[in-house]
Design a protein that fits this description.
Blueprint lengths: L1 H34 L6 E8 L8 E9 L2 E8 L12 E7 L4 E5 L7 E5 L2 E4 L8 E3 L9 E11 L3 E13 L2 E4 L7 E12 L1
Antiparallel strand pairs: 1-4, 1-12, 2-3, 3-7, 4-5, 6-7, 8-12, 9-10, 10-11
């Protein structure tokens, strides 16, 4: 009799152990969603599109932190280098409340202030009052990261997709909704402490 009970217990354990593990992995994200606070700080980041090159005489645009503020720096093209239009770069704000991406317009006609012999600073009026922290971890504990994943294509082959930007805290992950197939070179520029 005890042998039958022991076999039944082992059989039940063999059946329920995988189900418990599956349930744990299915409900783990829900647990973190309910226990982690929502993000409090907006995030500033930029991306480059897969657009065509433009003949504006500038080879690259980079965003540069000036203290706790951000400026756009334009670099002059050297002879033979490719040039890019300002329409190929984008600045975005991830709104923590709505969890949506808000584009910040860049005006190529703005006055350029000379920085060096071959580079200029272009101020961006929309963000001139933003106070940033350049730390990857915001004061509320959320951290900026990138999540790499693959997608299945024809005949079960895997095609690697560009990394998706996310913010995470204590196991909770929030995907920043930007099309990684349309944009490349996604760069973090800081958490917005004050607007």
């Amino acid at each position: 009799m005890s042998r039958i009970k022991k076999e039944n217990i082992l059989l039940l354990g063999a059946i329920f152990a995988p189900l418990i593990l599956i349930g744990y992995f299915l409900f783990k994200p829900l647990f973190y969603t309910t226990t982690s606070d929502d993000p409090q700080y907006d995030l500033l980041f930029s991306a480059r599109s897969y657009g065509e090159q433009g003949p504006d005489g500038i080879t690259s645009y980079t965003f540069q932190a000036k203290g706790q503020h951000l400026a756009l720096v334009a670099h002059e093209a050297k002879e033979g280098e490719s040039t890019y239009a300002t329409s190929d770069i984008f600045l975005f704000r991830f709104d923590a409340k709505t969890q949506q991406v808000v584009p910040i317009p860049l005006d190529a006609t703005l006055v350029k202030k000379k920085l060096t012999e071959h580079s200029w600073i272009i101020d961006i009026p929309e963000i001139e009052n933003y106070v940033l922290t350049l730390k990857k971890i915001a004061p509320d504990g959320y951290k900026y990261a990138r999540q790499r994943h693959s997608r299945m294509v024809l005949f079960d082959l895997f095609d690697t997709v560009a990394p998706t930007p996310i913010i995470k805290k204590e196991g909770r992950r929030i995907v920043i909704p930007i099309d990684s197939r349309r944009f490349s070179n996604i760069r973090f520029h800081g958490w917005i402490l004050k607007k």
